[in-house]
Design goal:
The protein is mainly α and 289 residues long. It is 56% helix and 8% strand. The chain is built from 7 helices and 2 strands. A two-stranded antiparallel sheet has the order 1-2. Helix 5 packs antiparallel against helix 7. The protein is elongated and about 135 Å long. The chain starts with a helix and ends in a 28-residue tail after the last helix.
Length: 289
C-alpha cells in the first residue's frame, strides 16, 4: 500500500528534475556565419608556388645551422613563451576542476591523539587516589562525508564549457607566441647578418677612398692634380667612414635583441655571431612544406 502511494510521487519528482535539467542556463554557442568573397580580387601569378601546409619549422628552409640553433634556443628559453605555457597548464587545470564539480565529492578524515596528564595538576593530585585513575589515554577518530551538487539549471555545465574554451584559447595564444618568437628571432638574426654585410661594404669603400686620396696627393705633389680635388676626395672618405659607427650600433642592438629573445642578458651570445657570414638564401615557399 505504501509503495503504491510513493510511486506517483517518485515519478513526479523524477519528471520535475528532468524538466529542470533541460532548462540549461543561457543559449548554446553558435559560430557566427561570415560572408567571404569567392576569390581574392587580385589573382596570383601563374608561377606562384603553392603555400606549404606546415610552417612549424619554416626557418630551417634557409639552410643555416646557426639560425636553426638560435631559434631552437629562443623557443626553449624565451620568457614570454614560458609564461604562455604556464597559462596553458593553468587553464587546463581549471577546466579539469570545472568538470569535476559535476560529480559527487567525497571526503575521508582520520585522527589519532595520545595524551598524558600531568601529576602536578590539581585534578591529577585528587584523581590519583582513585584506583581506576588512568594517566595515559588515546583517542581515535575516523569520519567520512559525501556531497553532490545536482546541476539542475546547467550552471556547472556552462562553467565547464567556458573553462574548456579558455583552455583552447590559451593553447592558441601559446601557439601564436611561439610563431612570434620564432619570427622575431629569425628577423634579428638576418638583421645581424645584413649589418655585417653593410659594414664590410662600407669598410671596403673607405679603403678605396683612402687609396684615392693618397693618389691625388701624389699627383698634387707632381703638379698634376689640384688642391680642390684632394679636399673633395678627403670629404668623400670621411663621409664613408662616418657611416660605419651607426651600422656598428645597429648591429649591437640586434645582438642585444637576440639575447633578450633567448631569455638571456645582453651580450651573452654575442660571441657566437662575431664572425661575419653571408646572408642565407631565401628559400622558396614550396621548399618549406
Amino acid at each position: 500500500m505504501i509503495r503504491a502511494r510513493l510511486a506517483p510521487r517518485l515519478a513526479a519528482a523524477a519528471l520535475a528534475m528532468a524538466m529542470l535539467g533541460g532548462c540549461t542556463v543561457g543559449p548554446d554557442y553558435h559560430r557566427p556565419e561570415l560572408t567571404l568573397a569567392g576569390s581574392f580580387h587580385a589573382a596570383p601569378p601563374p608561377t606562384a608556388p603553392a603555400v606549404p601546409a606546415n610552417f612549424n619549422e619554416w626557418w630551417t628552409g634557409f639552410g643555416d645551422p646557426l639560425l636553426d640553433r638560435t631559434v631552437a634556443r629562443a623557443l626553449a628559453q624565451n620568457l614570454d613563451l614560458e609564461a604562455a605555457r604556464a597559462r596553458v597548464a593553468q587553464s587546463r587545470a581549471a577546466a579539469r576542476s570545472a568538470g569535476a564539480a559535476l560529480y559527487p565529492k567525497g571526503e575521508l578524515q582520520a585522527s589519532a591523539t595520545d595524551q598524558q596528564l600531568s601529576l602536578l595538576s590539581p585534578f591529577a593530585v585528587v584523581s590519583s587516589e582513585v584506583p581506576v585513575f588512568r594517566r595515559n589515554y588515546d583517542l581515535y577518530d575516523v569520519g567520512a562525508a559525501a556531497s553532490w551538487e545536482i546541476d539542475l539549471f546547467g550552471g556547472l555545465r556552462r562553467s565547464r564549457q567556458a573553462a574548456r574554451a579558455d583552455a583552447e584559447a590559451a593553447r592558441d595564444d601559446a601557439a601564436a607566441v611561439r610563431v612570434s618568437v620564432a619570427a622575431e628571432t629569425a628577423d634579428a638574426y638576418l638583421q645581424v647578418r645584413a649589418y655585417q654585410a653593410r659594414i664590410a661594404v662600407a669598410r671596403r669603400q673607405a679603403a678605396v677612398e683612402a687609396r684615392l686620396v693618397d693618389l691625388l696627393r701624389e699627383r698634387r705633389g707632381e703638379g698634376v692634380s689640384s688642391e680642390r680635388e684632394v679636399h673633395q676626395a678627403s670629404a668623400a672618405l670621411q663621409g664613408v667612414q662616418a657611416t660605419v659607427p651607426p651600422l656598428m650600433a645597429g648591429q649591437a642592438g640586434q645582438l642585444d635583441r637576440l639575447d633578450i629573445l633567448m631569455g638571456a642578458s645582453a651580450g651573452t651570445y654575442a660571441a657566437e655571431f662575431a664572425t661575419p657570414a653571408d646572408l642565407p638564401a631565401t628559400p622558396a615557399l614550396s621548399a618549406l612544406g
